[in-house]
Amino acid sequence: MTVYTKNDLPQQWAETSGNLAETLFLSGQFVKVKELLGMLFEYADLMPTQRVPLLAISIANSICLGAHEQVYGDFESISRILFQQDSDFTLNWDFSSVEIAIAKNQVFSFHRQWLLDLIDALANGRRDMMQGALQTARATYVKFVNP
Fold it and tell me: What is the pTM of this model?
């Protein structure tokens, strides 16, 4: 068994920790997800293709925790990252399990559609499509939080 540590193999640590964060999210361990994502986001060399999907998971996770400021911050972080990418920027992250969790978990009932639309754009779109979906998701979220 190989153990990846942040100091010895930082890129591998980031990849496996990202997978763990997704697994913890799927199992409903939202506080642990927040802690792990906090460590991952401190890693300066986290690639945009890893950071954006993890920020999307953070948005969903923060909704579960009622952490509205974190959701706003994650929207802004994704926006900044996408702004720095070329127009052909895409992600290679498999969001299918996250989509199923959002579709089935009652905690997302008010946020389900815009979250699924955002994740679909992140999974299948290029930068401009992602930016459009992000703007729509942010505007919809604001309406739910500040009616």
Answer: 0.92
Within the chain, where are the H helices? 10-26, 30-42, 48-65, 68-83, 96-104, 112-124, 127-145
Q: Left (φ > 0), alpha (ψ -120 to 50) or beta: where does 38 sit?
A: alpha
Both tokens of 106, joined, read: 């009652």
Residues recorded for the chain: 147
Q: How far is CA 135 from CA 40, 82, 121, in A?
A: 25, 12, 12
Share of the chain above pLDDT 70, in %: 91
User: Phi/psi of residue 125, each to 5°?
Assistant: -105, 175
The residue assigned the tokens 């990252």 is 81
In the block, residue with structure tokens 């994740």:
119
- Residues 131, 41: Cα–Cα separation, whole Å: 20
- The answer to whether residues 102 and 119 touch, using CB atoms and an 8 Å cutoff, is yes
Write out pLDDT tens, residues 31-56.
Answer: 999 999 999 999 888 899 999 999 99
Q: CB–CB of 74/122 below 8 Å?
A: no
